[in-house]
Amino acid sequence: MKDFVLTQNAPAPIGPYSQGTIAEGKLLFVSGQIPFTPEGNLVGETIEEQTHQSLKNVKAIVEAAGLTMNNIVKTTVLMKNLADFGIMNEIYNSYLGESKPARAAYEVARLPKEVLIEIEAIAVF
Asked: Is the pLDDT reported for residue 1 higher than 90?
């Protein structure tokens, strides 16, 4: 059994996927969030601006499911340039530092819409 999360406080999916999927009422899987506003506009050109927006989108989806950022147990961060890891990590810490979810971070050749970062998450109820 699964349910879907859809909020107008994060950008709409740009493909055949949901913003978030709730599995068995126990886990929330948040699709990779890129730095677009809920209206679909790219935010900034720097890793700082784009990291903040991606995490704001994750937060909006988590909250739409009735959870908080403290419910997140795992994240994956995809970055265009891993040299920006330190900057991303400081911002990430301001959103998730207390909950300390498990995390993987990777440098990738390209991301959707040529953004600098994409962040996905898994949360528990």
From this structure: no
